[in-house]
Amino acid sequence: MAAQDCIDAAEKAAGGKLSLAQITEAIEVLQERQKQLMATDASLSSEDAALRAADELGMEAMQAASYKKRAAFINARRRAEALAYLRNNWADQPVLGAESFLVGTNLARTGSRASVSVEQSQLANSYIGGLLSDLEVAGNLDSLSSGIFDDDIARALWKLRDQTPDFTGIPKVAVDIAKTIDKWQETSRIGANKAGAMIGKLDNYITKQSHDPLRIRAAGKEDWISKILPRLSPDTFQGRDPYEFMSATYDGLASGVHFKSTGAPAGAFTGPRNIAKQVSQERVLHFRSAEDWTAYNREFGMGNIRESVIGSLSQLGESTALMKRLGTNPESNWNDVLDSFAKDLKGQPEKLKAFDDARKRMLKNRFSEVDGTTRIPVDGDLARYSSAARAWVNMTSLGASIASSVTDIPVAASELRYQGKSMLSGMGSMLKGLTSGRKSVEERQILSMLGVYMEGMRGATTNRFSVDDTLPGQVSKWQNLFFRMNLQSWWTDTHRASSGLSMSNYLAANSVSDFASLPKELTRALDLYGIDAGRWDLMRSAQLSEANGRQFMTTQDFDNISDEALSGYLESQGRTVSRNSISELREELAGQLRSYISDRVSYAVLEPDARTRAVLRQGTQPGTVSGELMRFFGQFKSFGVSFLQKAAGRELYGRDYVPTEFGRSLAPFRELLQAASTGSPAAQFLGMANLVAWSTVFGYMALAAKDLIKGKEPRDPLDPKVWMASFVQGGGFGIYTDFLFGEASRFGNKPLETLAGPFASRAASVVDVIQQSRLAATGEDVDLASKLFRLGQSSTPFANLFYIKPVLDYAIFYRIQEWMNPGSMIRMEQRVKRENNQQFLLRPSEVVR
Which of 711, 714, 743 lies closest to 846 in space, CA to CA? Predict the structure, then answer.
């Protein structure tokens, strides 16, 4: 093709004259498309291929221009909405307002919990909850969870988008599961497109392909290419050299940075960190068949069908929510909003400086959590090996974590009290949930609709103890099994379900009242999520759900709220009434109810949210030295930090507290004193007193349970030192309570080592053994064998499960320890008596004798 012909074709595609640089770039794009067309259709001549390439690129350029205009409109609207919210509600506290918008705060102001992070959580949960609910209704949830139908489900998904799908030879249960998965994948795709993405439907689509860089690297480039190449369709290469293409793909996947093609039209999405472009990417690897896809997923992927689908829905839900709040260019739009907000502070140098300082550090860290920066590994090897090491610490340290979880009961009750119920009534609801057995199908459906589903199904139980996002697939499976075996998954799921149902039932019970007649506590809580009188009236006009003779407010019948009622509310707010605005309002109402329930459940059954993770990770990325050090340091501290931020923070700042100084300049203790002395001190004092008193009581129960598991009698409840330990245990810092009694920590090291993180504590034990072995080599008399044995005993996963460890101790380990170090059992009993004033219920020295 002549050069001028290429230029003419390029200008035809662009729709006008081009500069020299544009001509050069356009010719390269045209020639690449020309090669692809000729490779897929041998009958095309060079000229015909060039003309067809020009036509295709011209059409794509027109579409890109259209999408670019749409994106510009979306971005302008989201910037205006965010800026209006900050100016209307946080003009006196810009820093707290910006933090509230991103990750939420406890201050009792309109929308202070309706944050971007809560929106991300509720939308992702709505997709996952909807999937689980539909599977539960059809009786197919266990079939998906078992994994035995994974290959059949993949085959059914592969065929679903054929003109006339042929499911011959595929079990009906697999076909039904595939249709349910496809329904929710389509729902999430359409939702993302509404928010600003451009995701097309792909033929032979199963679910988002996962890649495990560790497995890929272990195979090596040549072996990986030789195994995968025969499984790929020629569509993958589009005229490019297969080996060169796969070599480049390997480099991207093995490094953890997945190789992506530009699935969106050029120019459709522009700007830094464009989320719309990221979620609009099309797949790079096209497999020949479903069997080839599953074979690759099994050997080089990171999970089964269930985990892949749930992970894909979660990721797309979070990305969509980010676009719904900050447009297609979230980072650029957020900076524009902050720039405009900062202009309001001109003439107030101290306030402007405080705001600028917060932008550079605190707000930057918060944004890194919601846009996913802190989940992107820099060095894949370092991130995954470090995460695996922390998982190993979990599985060798948390065998009796359910004992410490007893303190969940008063924490949940204090949250229900904050919404208007009594403390005793809240504890009664939680205890009833523990003893009532598995929730009914109807109750589980209600929870799924509200975005409160089984964390054990998602493998997210570990979130309560860690802030990891990079756990390797096989290690993740072992850790999920561990949390099921130590009953932590059951405990967490049961308490989440009980608190969620209690909140939904409480809303239903109050649905007979208008907003002005609701309890003050409830109106305050609803206002945190932007639910005003008009929205409450719309919500309570929907039909209530029923289960086991109780009524619940859910999103089930929000689609039946009349258009007239919705139009009336829009008019009252000065908003334009249209089909789109009515539909958008329905979605907003459903999202607000899910946000309210799911977020308040995270207060009742504490787990770290984006704000907690931002504090613990400080904006660092996995796979960096600083990022991994922060994650090691923060292990097991996330629960305690969540207690301070959520439970204690809610009681101090969540009622009538009004900051009297700008920003976050107050010293922590001054701020606590100010919170306790402003607003309504009686209400704040009573709320905190209830939380502290009951948490301390249940903290003692947790200590007693742990002592019984160890074969010891409970500690003296009249000892002030014991009550101090109970106070700390009830406040979420149970792993440190042993230090208050003069013992080494349960991880076997000094307090300073454990404060640095449990892995540092274990590492110190290993160093100690190495040093002892060197001394032994010089002939010095050291107890090396005993130290090695204890290190191995404490480092074996699953051996510390609360119902296994006592049996192993008395049947095997105490005997071996006594044999290696005669008299060690008596010395251990004497030390426990001297330091803790305790005795063993069954003395180890008597057993070994």
Answer: 711
What are the φ/ψ torsions at residue 320 (nearest 5 degrees)? -65, -45
Residues 593-606 have a mean pLDDT of: 94
SS3 373: helix
Question: What is the domain count for the chain?
Answer: 2
Least confident range of 60-64, 411-415, 831-835: 60-64
Residue 248 lies in a domain: no
Looking at residue 454, its pLDDT comes to: 63
**Residue 657 CA: distances (Å) to CA of 96, 106, 651:** 13, 10, 10
Pairing of strands 550-552, 545-547: antiparallel
Q: Can you give the residue range of the structural domain that contains 488?
A: 377-636
Is the residue at 205 inside a domain? no
Domain C-terminal end among 54, 69, 87: 87
Distance CA(590)–CA(265), nearest Å, equals: 33
**Residue 691 dihedral angles phi and psi, to the nearest 5°:** -65, -50
- Find tokens 């709320």 and name the residue: 687
| Main-chain dihedrals φ then ψ at residue 169, nearest 5 degrees | 85, -5
The helix/strand count (H/E) of the chain reads as: 43, 2
The kind and range of the H/E element at 3 are helix 3-14
Residues 6 or more apart whose CB falls under 8 angstroms from that of 626 comprise 620
In 3D, which of 141, 202, 163, 215 has the Cα closest to residue 153? 141
Cβ–Cβ < 8 Å for 115, 102: yes
- Distance CA(554)–CA(547), nearest Å, equals 12
Q: Is residue 202 in some structural domain?
A: no
**DSSP string spanning 583-651?**
HHHHHHHHHHHHHHHHHHHHHHTT---HHHHHHHHTT--TTSHHHHHHHHHHTTTHHHHHIIIIIIHHH
Dist. CA 134–CA 128, nearest whole Å: 10
Closest CA to 458 of 265, 314, 259, 300: 314
* Domain termination residue (choose one: 636, 667, 700): 636
Dist CA 537 CA 604 (whole Å): 26
Q: How far apart are the first and last CA of the chain?
A: 95
User: Mean pLDDT over residues 777-791, rounded?
Assistant: 75
User: For residue range 133-157, what is the model confidence (pLDDT) as tens digits?
Assistant: 888 888 898 898 888 898 999 999 9
Distances (CA, A) of 38 to 42, 48, 49, 237, 239: 6, 9, 6, 13, 8
Report the alpha-carbon distance of residue 702 to residue 696 in Å, rounded: 10
Residue 615 makes CB contacts below 8 A (sequence gap 6+) with 641, 645
Q: What is the pLDDT of residues 514-550, one digit of tens each?
A: 999 999 999 999 999 999 999 999 999 999 999 988 9
pLDDT exceeds 50 at position 743: no
Residue 349 has which token pair?
């140098």
Please state which of the ranges 407-411, 580-584, 682-686 shows the lowest mean pLDDT: 682-686
Q: How many CA atoms lie within 13 A of 735 on its CB side?
A: 27
Cβ atoms 101, 611 nearer than 8 A: no
Q: Which two tokens stand for residue 775?
A: 């001394």
For 272-281, 445-454, 492-501, which range has the lowest pLDDT when averaged over its residues? 272-281
Distance CA 145, CA 479 (A): 16
Asked if residue 354 belongs to a domain, the reply is no
pTM of the full structure: 0.84
